[in-house]
Structures are given as structure tokens and as C-alpha cells.
Amino acid sequence: MVASETAPRKRPSVSLPKLNLCGDIGLKIGRDGTWYYQGGPIARRGLVKLFASVLRLEGDGYYLVTPVEKVPIEVETMPFVAVEMWREGSGAAQSLSFRSNVDDVVSAGPEHALGFQAGPKGNFTPFILVRDGLKARLARPVYYELAALAVEHDGAEGPGVWSGGVFFPFPASERGDG
Q1: Inter-residue contact 63 to 134 (CB < 8 Å)
Q2: Which of 69, 73, 84, 60 has its CA nearest to residue 136?
Q3: How far is residue 150's CA from residue 131's CA, in Å, rounded to a whole number?
Q4: Are 128 and 106 in contact (CB under 8 A)?
Q5: Average pLDDT score over the chain
Q6: Is 172 helix (H, G, I), strand (E, B) or coil?
Q7: Is the pLDDT at 2 greater than 50, yes or no?
Q8: Do residues 116 and 125 lie in contact, with contact meaning Cβ atoms separated by under 8 Å?
Q9: Torsion angle defined by CA atoms of residues 98, 133, 45 and 142, in that order, rounded to the nearest 10 degrees
């Protein structure tokens, strides 16, 4: 074996050209987390996970971004759905972790906030921040599990949950007093 075959290869520094913005090709993520291409659901889970890995939020639009192009994608509400939650510890020391429909796993805390997005009719949609501004809507059963963990906290105006050393309060209408 020659030394050059075992030595790590140095990759040249490449300056990427300006990304080509492709037109709409019919990609959409439905409220339930189903990915669609030209109106039909994408059945290949591996393909959905690949697309999810290159999904970006830029301004007020979502795009699939590769090193040379970006493709707009319509997102009905939020791009991901939190389908599972588990708890470790209790009280202010507890940690709440969530798994998304594309198998991203995050623990709520300073970098992955739990929040409530206001809707048009005064309702709120609970979510966990997954990455780079991308949110996962909490599926109804996951939200019920979260609500069951709600506690009062001194200084907060109502109940909420602890995770990762952060107290996440529920909005007033979710508490029934708004």
C-alpha cells in the first residue's frame, strides 16, 4: 500500500456559486406531517427524512436547500409533528424530550423552546423548536401528556412545565382563564 492511499485527502476550498432558486415543483407538508409531491403523499420514509434534513426556513418561506439550489416547499402549519414525549427527573430538574415524525429528537430547554403559536381564532398550537427556527407541532396525545405535567411556579402568571432548567408557561387561553 502506498502512503498516498492511506493519507487523508485534502479537499480544495470551493466557493459555492449563488444558489439557483428553482420554481415550485409541487412539494407540500400537510398539517399532520405528511409530505406530498404534486398532490400525492410521499410514501418512502427514507426520502421524507432526507428532504427533512435539508429543510430550511428563510424569511417567511420554507425551502429544501442543497449546495447549488433551493426549492420552495409549502408548509400547511409547521413542518414537523412531535409524536412522542418522555420525561426524566421531576420538578425544576426534569427534562422533557420529544421525537418528531422524522425521528429528530430534542430536549426542551434553552436551545429548544416549548411554545404556543397563536392561531387566527384565538387558539394556540403547542410546539417544540427543533432547529434553526423549524418547529414541530405537538400531536394531540403528546400535548395531553405535557398538560398533565403542568405545575405552578412562583413569579409565573399561571401553570407551565419545567424542562432543561427553564420554565415554559402555558398561554392564558390554554389555562382556561383567557
Answers
A1: no
A2: 84
A3: 24
A4: yes
A5: 86
A6: helix
A7: no
A8: yes
A9: 30
Phi, psi of 169 (to 5 degrees): -75, 150
Rounded to two decimals, the pTM is 0.82
Q: Which three cell numbers stand for residue 131?
A: 432547529
Whole-number pLDDT of residue 19? 66
pLDDT in tens, 110-168: 999 999 998 888 889 999 999 999 999 999 999 999 999 999 888 777 899 999 999 99
SS3 content of the chain, % helix, strand, coil (to 5): 15, 40, 45
Long-range contacts, 13-22 (Cβ 8 Å, 24+): 16/67, 16/68, 17/68, 19/65, 19/68, 19/69, 19/70, 20/68, 20/69, 20/70, 21/69, 21/70, 21/72, 22/69, 22/70, 22/71, 22/72
Amino acid at 142: V
